[in-house]
Amino acid sequence: RMGNAHQNIVPYQTFEASDGHLILAVGNDRQFTKFCEIAGRPAWAIDPRFATNAERVRHRAVLVPLLE
User: Is residue 36 within 8 Å of residue 45, measured between CB atoms?
Assistant: First the structure.
């Protein structure tokens, strides 16, 4: 079990923020690229570990702490 995280989509879970919690639900690679731009981390979108959802799932243990 993964709590609030989705088993096959990354990122898709709740995150603690300074003023509460937020749900980050990035459903596809294009959305992830846009999210990275908005978050000020455009390099994440071209990082081979995160460029596709399959790779983000594979490297969840690396990406989630970066997002936190």
Answer: yes
- List residues bridging with 21 in a β-sheet: 16
Specify the pTM: 0.89
Contact 66, 24 (CB under 8 A): no
Distance, CA of 25 to CA of 44 (rounded, Å): 16
Q: What is the DSSP letter of 9?
A: S
Helical ranges in the chain per DSSP H: 29-38, 42-46, 53-58, 60-67
Residue segments in the chain with a per-residue pLDDT below the cut of 50: none
Is 6 catalytic? The answer is yes
Which member of 1, 2, 3, 6 is catalytic? 6
